[in-house]
Structures are given as structure tokens and as C-alpha cells.
Amino acid sequence: MSLESLFSLKGKVAIVTGALGLIGKQHCFALAEAGANVVVCDLNEDKCGNFASQLPGKNLGIGTDITNIESVKNLRDKILNEFHGISVLINNAAINDMFENPVAASELSKFENYPLDLWQKSLDVNITGTFLCSQILGSEMAKKGKGSIINVASTYGITAPDQSIYKKPDGTQSFYKSAAYPVTKGAVISFTRFLAAYWGNKGVRVNTLSPGGVENNQDEYFISNYSSKTPLGRMAAPTDYKGAIIFLASDASNYMTGANLIVDGGWTAW
What we know:
270 residues; Rossmann fold
């Protein structure tokens, strides 16, 4: 098999959850550029359809609530009706705490005050959503005897958040990284290992992609604080994960399962 064909996704059907997010869109572009038929999956169906129409090739946009079993089953049925199979699933959808009110964020994001409803919402989306999509969509791969599931975790699933990077130059802190995100991302990594072992004999490979932080118009002090903790000296660009996604989705990673591919600029190296 040639190197080009190893990385080709021509004829494959790839689903991306959380597809309208910052790196979700880049996952979709990468898959489509590699020849896949991409299923753009997020909450708003109209926006999914509009974005799918901007990608090269034949693609589909489907609005889905990944925490709802009937919604995920509906997603599966629509995909099978259109494409008659599923090749790749990227469990990318996740909640990463954002607080609209800076004053409230300072207190609510502290572990001592963190609201139970926000904790539960993160569990529902980040863990249960990954579970349901893998169970319902991955089962179709297992039936066919081939497929690749990519669970998107985070460096915070491996190392604890450094709360000091959220500290302003004047020493005040308006935000603390909550326990919900690292806990759920750690669970995603563990779930990857479980599923890789469970479906290995069915030809379904299951791997984790653990990205580092992506620069996205954050405050300059935060970008500087974060960048100083990476050997490469910068935050990731949204496009920095395209190569990793194609590698994990394609036959280039044919003998790889249960692994955690860390792409973080060296954040976890020291």
C-alpha cells in the first residue's frame, strides 16, 4: 500500500460530534480533504447543514443531542440511510466551563463553590455522550468488522490544571479551572482503553487524541502564561490537530488501538 493510500479516507464515512466548535470544524475540513464523506453533528441542524455544504465532497449535517439516546439513534438511522455504513467516529463534543459574568466566575469556578448542576452537565456531555455515541454508532462498525473511534480528551485528562496560568498580572484571579473538565477527560482516556480491548477482536480501533490549549482570542496575559509552560513556546493553532486526526482515522494507524496520542506542544513533557 502506498503512503498516499495509507492516509486516504476516500469512500469512508466519518462522523464528528461537536463539529461546529473551534477544532471540530478543523476536524471536518481535514476529513473531507482526505476524501471522507463527513457527517457534521452538533445541536443546531440548520447550522450543521450549512457548514456541511461548505466542505468538499458529499457531506451531511445532522442536529443531535448526544446525551439523548433517541437522538443518537436517529443520527445513526439517517447516516445508514444516506451512506449505508460508518467508518470513523470522532467523539469531539464536550463542555468546557465558561462563565459569562466575570464577577460570578471568580467565585463559582472555585472548587469550594462549584455548582452541582454544572458538574452534572459536564458528566452528561463529556462522558455519557461519548458512551452513547460509541455504543450506538460504534456497534455498526463492530457489525462490519472495521472502524476507527477517536475520543478527544485533553492534557487536563493527564495532568492537573495549573491554576496560576489564570492569574492576572496584578495577582488577582478571576477564574479557576474546575474539577469537571479534567475528571471527565480522564474518564474518556480510561473509556478508550476499555473499548479498545472490548472491540479489538471486532476490528474496531479506539484511540484518544489529547490536544493542548488552542489560542482563541484569550487575554494576552493568559496566552503568555500558557505559552511559557510549553517547550514550543506557544498555544496550538486550530489547524494543528488536522494531521493527528487523519493519522488516527486512516489505515496509517492500522496497528494502533487503546493509545493516547498527545499533541500539546510539549506541555506534558516537563
